From TrEMBL:
Keywords assigned: Membrane, Transmembrane, Transmembrane helix
Bilayer-spanning residue ranges: 6-25, 37-54, 60-83, 90-112, 161-181
Protein known as: DUF5317 domain-containing protein
Keyword Cytoplasm in record: no
Superkingdom of the organism of origin: Bacteria
């Protein structure tokens, strides 16, 4: 498992669990939400894992099938949110909308450039080695469109950079767990 996969996929909900407990919530509060099609979240996580960890799968999907794996992840998560958002309380819907906005921002900058651009100065500030290009990232340059939506936020302690979309996705996922944990279970037999 890559560190970036952990940072974007697993760490925000885990942080949410910790904050949820600190704020008096309980995991049982998650049961008060009707969550449908949870399997879509697992599919998105599996595709995200494959994207970061299994180069052969990424090459096949992107070059043979012709679909960017990130588009599959975004579409799957957006589908899951579309099924669930209308049913959730307003505060939790806002966390879902933050995730959607973050995914859209990331998708727009990737679509505009073919890869997620990163700011070499931000990478240097974070303690990384700027200048390399991967199948997913490229250094921003004079011809980069919407560079400010790329990976421009240095995270020095982790030697990584994040995009504004990453921040919204992570914050939304964390806040979702916190708010859901703080919901109270209704006594059995109570229907609304």
């Amino acid at each position: 498992m890559s560190f970036r996969f952990f940072l974007l996929t697993i760490a925000p909900p885990l942080l949410g669990v910790g904050l949820g407990y600190l704020l008096g919530g309980r995991l049982a509060g998650l049961r008060s939400l009707r969550i449908r099609a949870l399997w879509l979240v697992w599919v998105a996580a599996a595709v995200q894992f494959a994207q970061y960890s299994l180069g052969g799968v990424r090459h096949f999907v992107e070059n043979v099938v012709g679909v960017p794996m990130l588009a599959v992840v975004f579409a799957t998560v957006l589908g899951w949110l579309a099924v669930n958002l209308p049913r959730w309380p307003a505060a939790i819907r806002l966390t879902g909308l933050a995730i959607v906005l973050g995914a859209v921002l990331n998708g727009v900058v990737i679509a505009a450039n073919g890869r997620m651009p990163y700011d070499p100065a931000a990478v240097a500030k974070a303690g990384g080695q700027p200048g390399s290009q991967t199948a997913k990232n490229e250094p921003a340059g004079a011809g980069t469109r919407l560079a400010w939506l790329g990976d421009t936020i240095p995270i020095p302690g982790l030697r990584k950079v994040a995009s504004p979309g990453d921040v919204l996705i992570s914050a939304g996922a964390c806040a979702f767990v916190v708010l859901a944990m703080r919901r109270r279970l209704e006594p059995k037999g109570v229907n609304h």
